[in-house]
Amino acid sequence: MNKLPVGIQSFEKIREEGYLYIDKTRYVYDLVHSSVPYFLSRPRRFGKSLLISTLKAYWEGKKELFSGLEIEKLEDTWKEYPVFHFDFNGANYQEKGALEHKLDFQLQMYEDHFGLKRKDALLGDRFSRAIRAANEQTGLRCVVLVDEYDKPLLDLVEKPELQEHNKDVFKGFFSTLKSLDAYIQFIFITGVSKFHKISIFSDLNQLTDISLSKKYAEVCGITEEELKNDFCSEVVTLADEQNISVDECLKELKQMYDGYRFHPNAEGVYNPHSLLSAFFAGEMGSYWFETGTPTFLLHRLRESHFDIRKFTDRTIYASEAVLRDYTGDALDPIPLLHQTGYLTIAEYDDKRKRYTLSFPNEEVKYGFFDSLIPVYAPKATVGNGLDIFTLDEYIGDGDMDRINGYADLY
Asked: N or C end of the chain: which has fewer CB within 10 A?
């Protein structure tokens, strides 16, 4: 049995302590051997932080951590670059000033490291000064890694004034990168959504969005081949615990956790958090929904009078522009549903340049409807036969009389 890294996002810890690592370093090699600044959008709990951590270890020249991995055969030059890593996870942004405090705390670490005296200057000016100092002291250009940049914005969807304030903070902070091109080697930014109106994208107009790139469609998540090659013992053990065959186990895992597609011609990938959690617990549960569906998403569906039957009849359509950008002020919930992982690419019509979206798997399907019912039908309970599973039967059968009966529960 492998040592499973459930909830561990540190590449260094995974490698040093012998946890299972699905080798994605061929993508790391491709990314770092380009001076292009990148942006990658993926749903929560999908391995973005691990990817950032892997990039950080590479740029810090920690060659020993990559022993036995694909990049070891590809890379022949290892250097220790100055890395500026900004992680916006693990903070509460519900109060004004929380984002500034987070940035100040992280900047202080770099100012101390490079021996800079703290000045009462704007955050962006301090960032610029730290990058210039790092370049002067090391003789190398800097690497900027930003993890979950949009958390201080998504957390405040229901507080638009504070969200606008945080957008302004980002504008003052990240816009400084535009004038520091000569001092920067590499930029990589991750998030769930792409707020195209904020300066991190408008000012960095050269930022390359690889969220829908076929080349990097499998950079996060677990492919079918990786599942069968790297989790052999876990699949056998889970099959034994569930008293089913290995083939039946693989089929059920696929139905529950596979199906995310980030390019119409790319292979689907499994949700890594859910898959690892299922092996760890010995049960195929709904692990992605443990933190619940954001309430604002559910209310946004109601406000837009969205026809929920579209979720199962494959009539949700979108253009590439809609999938890439989330304005934050539009009523249409589809872009955010896609970027947050509730919908994924099912088909692509090349003639119409039209994407068809659907639920990726049963974990998302049943979990989402389970979250949706209290918003659409607050009086629905299991006891009166109006639970999610019953509703799904009605939708699947096209039983409009019973579906319409839900209106009596408002």
From this structure: C
Same domain? For 176 and 267 the reply is: no
* Domain span holding position 234: 224-281
**Per the domain annotation, does 290 fall within a domain?**
no
Answer whether residue 167 is part of any domain: yes
- The DSSP symbol for 356 reads E
Label residues 77-109 b or e (16+ Cβ within 10 Å = b). eeeebbbbbbbbeebebeeeebbeebbeebbee
Q: Clarify whether residues 153 and 264 are in a common domain.
A: no
> Is 264:356 a contact under the CB 8 Å cutoff?
no
Report the 3 state secondary structure along 79-116.
CCCCEEEEECCCCCCCCCCHHHHHHHHHHHHHHHHCCC
Both 272 and 305 in one domain: the answer is no
Diameter of the chain measured on Cα atoms? 73
Give 231: exposed, middle or buried? Use CB within 10 Å, 0-12, 13-18, 19+. buried
d(CA 41, CA 46): 10
